[in-house]
Design goal:
11 helices; globular
């Protein structure tokens, strides 16, 4: 009876939602800040039909966004750039899938060099935002969702502490661990932010160039 009671108690603890009220409130405040930023961008744009705006999930979505945003990109460059950055960083911060399509859109709208610079900046900023948010509230969530991966990551980081930058670069350019997991778990395993930042900034350049280049080629194909 005593053993069964302990087991039931353990199951109840494991089944609980891993975040406290204040942690959820903090995450909600971050969401509110992003929404406020997008609202400010929207209010500075001219009155028009923006029903075409949505997160791209396919090449067809990218084509629709490109066709509608091309004119705005030339006339309202700052607003389009700020809006793009807010959306991309928000997706990175909260691990929302689909940033690869945002990278393709950057190539389609801004070309190779501007597109790569924009994607590397927003991806690094979003990863950094995820890092610090996770440092505040992420430990129970990461332990709840990825306990085995977290243990593996902790062991590897401890083993490679003297050459940690090399290891983090390796993780960024290979599929050993998902980038979203690296972003949220790094503060849990005591990866210093300057190591995290450098590895992210440098390691994302190859993938950013490839996806942006594909976006440019797709745009040229549509114009052909």
């Amino acid at each position: 009876m005593e053993r069964r009671g302990e087991r039931d108690c353990k199951e109840n603890v494991e089944g609980r939602f891993p975040l406290t009220f204040w942690e959820v409130a903090g995450a909600s405040a971050v969401v509110g800040a992003f929404v406020l930023g997008l609202a400010c961008v929207y209010l500075t744009m001219p009155a028009s039909d923006y029903s075409f705006l949505k997160l791209p999930r396919s090449l067809e979505d990218i084509q629709i966004l490109r066709d509608h945003l091309e004119d705005y990109t030339s006339d309202y460059t700052v607003q389009v750039l700020v809006g793009y950055c807010i959306v991309y960083i928000f997706m990175q911060t909260f691990m929302i899938p689909g940033t690869v399509f945002m990278s393709l859109l950057a190539g389609s709208l801004f070309g190779v060099f501007k597109g790569v610079a924009l994607v590397v900046f927003t991806a690094t900023a979003g990863a950094s935002s995820c890092y610090f948010l996770s440092k505040l509230i992420g430990r129970p969530l990461v332990s709840f969702l990825w306990p085995e991966q977290l243990s593996f990551f902790q062991a590897q980081v401890s083993k490679r502490r003297e050459r940690l930058l090399n290891y983090m670069l390796f993780l960024r350019v290979t599929p050993t661990l998902p980038n979203t997991f690296i972003n949220v778990a790094s503060p849990m395993v005591d990866v210093p932010y300057h190591i995290f930042f450098l590895a992210t900034f440098i390691g994302l350049i190859p993938a950013a160039y490839v996806t942006v280049r594909v976006g440019v080629n797709y745009s040229c194909l549509l114009d052909y």
